[in-house]
Amino acid sequence: MNTLIHILVRLILVSTFSHVALADDAAAFSSGSALLIRNATVYTMSRGATDPLKATDVLVQDGRVIAIGQGLSAPAGTIVVDASGRALTPGVFGGLGHIGLEEIGLEQSTGDYAQRLGQMRPEFDVTHAYNPESMTVGVNVINGVTFTLLTPASTSGGSLIAGLGAPVGLDGTAPLPARFMFVDLGGDANDLSGGSRAAQFMLLRQAIVEARAPNLVMVHDERLLSPSGRQVLVEFLKGNGAFVFDVDRAIDIRNTVRFAREEKLNAVIRGGAEAWRVANELAAAGIPVIVDPLHNLPDSFDEVGSTLQNAAKLRATGVTVAISLNDTGVDDAGKTRQAAGNAVAHGMPWMDALAAITRSPAEIFAVTDRFGSIERGKFADFVLWSGDPLDVSSLPDLVVAGGKLQKLESRHTALRDRHYERVKSGMAR
Amino acid sequence: MTSRRSLNLALLTGLLTALTACSATGPMKGKRAPKTAIPQTGVVTLTVSPYPSTYKPAVSTPRLIRGATILVGNGERLENADVLLRNGLVAAVGKQLEAPADALIVDGRGKWVTPGIIDVHSHLGVYPSPSVDAHSDGNEATSPSTAQVWAEHSIWPQDPGFEAALEGGITTLHVLPGSANLFGGRSVTVKNVHAVTYQAMKFPDAPHGLKMACGENPKRVYGNRRQLPSTRMGNVAGWRSQWIEAQEYARDWKQYEARKTAGAKDLRPPKRDLRLETLAGVLRGEILIQHHCYRADEMAIVVDMSREFGYRVSAFHHATEAYKISNLLAENKVCAAVWADWWGFKMESYDAIPENMILVDAAPGGCAVVHSDSAEGTQRLNQEAAKGMAFARRMGIEIKPEHAITWLTKNAARAIGLDARIGVLESGKMGDVVVWNGNPFSVYALTEQVYVDGVLRFDRANPRALPESDFLLGQPAYEGVIR
Question: How far is it, in rounded angstroms, from Cα B225 to Cα A139?
């Protein structure tokens, strides 16, 4: 009882000093005790749920959610957090990016997300480069980002098929096995297709022919793929993984939809600046779109039709929408939440926008067992927010990722604390 | 697909020969400078710019915005109060203002009103959309000192980014050259008004800035060419040698003017030098230094250098480590124009923290400014400030909206030498006003009306039928877009 009172007293501080107050709790929790979130407004984001569940408790034991309901009782030794009605959501999706794959953007020696072998290597798998101890992991998780997609990039000297990527939880654990193949299309990939986007589907078809019918290739034919590349590609062609096409122009998206139908690919559109213009076709084909709702300028001649209403229009047409910034900088992962809020400001229903950074990306990449919803039996992966979960004026008061309560501390907070003391002391230099 | 910032970074890494905008300058503080002084043969000083502003606000009907929550811009907040715009100016701010007979009444109940937002770090027009090679006009990356170039001569007024920024409440933009060079060239302040020529956007009688750059960018660009600077010490030597030249140039002109005033005959004026004219303008206090600089240690060197040569830094831009020297900056009256949460995209931004603006603000006399350096970010500077407020709350510091707005208005105006004319809603200031549909420090806040010099330039209730940008006009792919 004493422990409970102690914790409740500390939780009064949660709204202002949550990272400090919860530090000890995080240590206790990770050693196997239970966690009870009391009186939260729970957005479970599970299919069929009537979210939000008001005045609801969530009980976690051994890293899993074991009960969701009202008036739950806590076993002895449970860490109890009084949410006072604050919103509890699944952990936020950080988008397609390079967390743990780069430390410093401009320093090539710290960046591992693109190959420049001068060959098409669909088997290039960026998960092998993931560093769970990168600062980019810890900084993002304390802002409520609990999972992201490790995503390869196409770059000069590389290939249209950038390679393989996978979801990863930002709790320090290993990435999941590669789950999608990333393909760059459109004008910004012209230098990877001999100078023309017309050659992009030509090259993709050639690769597919090699993978599907290796005997069709004569001994002296020039091959695009290595033997292991053919093996990997054929597995994806069998449906064991998604193809993420990074493409913006309406006609290019239309051609991608047709290509996916003809080749029977499990396709996802990423970017899709002009996707709203072909929304009906995307909806009919059941192809999800990962959009950047902040993107509204014609950065290139592939994106003349960019608009802040892209996400809302796609959703209104019935397209499954997930949100990722187009920028893949490690500092942009937490900005998916800001992007979702802006999508709401420009017409997307609030619950759809929350789904676009929780459940929808988990569904698109088949990781609903770990991410994207709060459900009994699943790993605990959620965030208690200081206010509206989609508003930039809110921050996490508590983060549970991969079943573990996270300390809200990072290299950033350490820098902040050290130098705030210096500022207060009046030190000039 | 590649977003603008990625592209900028790609350019910075040298994939293309030009450098882009990102990570270029710094803000400053400043008194209002006199009109640009242009020495010319036979004339010591002209008070008229050879590229004068032709901007004249349209005649506007007086407007009385009534019953709103007003963030004045000077730290004050008024509830259920009014703003009267007349003759292009703020005529009055207060409660129960009398409506002039000819005034249109704007129902401000439930709305929030702020001064027009000022972005002190913009590359709109000089790195416009679309960002094709032909539009790379922001870095004259052919010499480490190009103080002779003027960003205004690169501005493409058709950049669709301007109208997108207007919808975000931006009424004034300070457009800078990029950060490839130690001295990048003159920056310029423009009103965010659609025009065919930049002169018709140019802020009348605003002081020029001079963009300088610290750190990685200049030393990378020129180091890759095996020329000075290739190191940080080379950066400093490069700046100092230029200032020495500028001192001599300024002295020659001063002597000439003194002799002429004394009645000497047959005097030959010194030869004009565009590069040194700019630098001498800084030493005379007419041109304000906007210094791109990330690291605390480098900013401290720059402060020492400004004392060595007798000028003042108006603002450090980006200044991701400003929080480590908040007191030094405050003591020297230097503003820090910062992002909310950019970090890690280059080594010198590794120590950037989202509380940067808060710690700058926390020093007595600190001047925090929120800037964008981004065509996306400039559309929502209010959200950038809101992020800072959230991180402040997390460390136990409560920042009120009426205070946070100063980072986007009053302090920003000070950084570009225009605090006598914009940035605060008070009688006599320019009629740059934004009406928001709620508290602007929310992700859901949208502008409803944006006034520039009393003229309603954006009205969400009456969206434009056509884009203002000629570039977007008649583009089939753009049809159906309502921004």
Answer: 36
B387-426 pLDDT, tens digit each: 999 999 999 999 999 999 999 999 999 999 999 999 999 9
Of B129, B130, B394, the CB nearest to A19: B394
Under CATH, domain A92-371 is a member of which superfamily?
A: Metal-dependent hydrolases (3.20.20.140)
Closest CB from A16, A105, A294 relative to B376: A294
Report CA-CA distances (Å) from A334 to A138, A254, A387, B393: 12, 31, 16, 18
Give strand pairing partners of A291.
A271, A323
Report if residue B42 sits inside a domain: yes
Residues counted in chain A: 429
Q: Provide the residue ranges of all domains of chain A, joining segments of one domain with +.
A: 2-90+392-417, 92-371
Q: Maximum Cα–Cα distance for chain A, whole Å? A: 79
- Rounded distance, CA B23 to CA B319, Å? 10
Closest partner residue to A329 among B5, B15, B394, by Cβ? B5
Q: Does A184 touch chain B (CB under 8 A)?
A: yes
Contacts of residue B362 in chain A, CB cutoff 8 Å? 420, 423-424
Which residues constitute the domain of residue B407?
21-57+117-416
Q: What is the per-residue pLDDT for B201?
A: 98
Q: How many CB atoms lie within 10 A of CB B182?
A: 29
Looking up tokens 């005529």 gives B91
Distance, in Å, from the CA atom of A105 to the CA atom of A85, rounded to the nearest integer, reads 40
SS3 A329: coil
Long-range contacts of B258-261 (CB under 8 A, 24+ apart): B260/B44
Contact status of B483 with chain A (Cβ, < 8 Å): yes
Q: Total structural domains in chain B? A: 1
How many angstroms away from the CA of B226 is the closest CA of chain A?
20
What is the rounded average pLDDT of the residues A359-371?
97
Tell me which chain B residue has its CA closest to the CA of residue A348.
B444
Average pLDDT, rounded, for chain B: 91
- Sequential DSSP letters for A116-151: -SSS--TT-BGGGG--TT-HHHHHHHTTTEEEEEE-
Looking at beta carbons, which residues of chain A come within 8 Å of B1? 184, 186, 188, 246-248, 270-271, 302, 326
Residue A226: Cβ within 10 Å count: 14
CATH number of A2-90+392-417: 2.30.40.10
ipTM of the complex: 0.93
Q: Determine, for residues B353 and A416 on separate chains, whether the beta-carbon distance falls below 8 Å.
A: yes
DSSP, collapsed to helix, strand or coil, labels residue A84 as coil
Q: How far apart are CA B390 and CA B411, in angstroms?
A: 20
Instruction: Collect all residues of chain A within an 8 Å Cβ-Cβ radius of residue B343.
Output: 139, 331, 412
Q: A300–B341: do the CB atoms touch at under 8 Å?
A: no
* Two structure tokens written together for B65: 């915005």
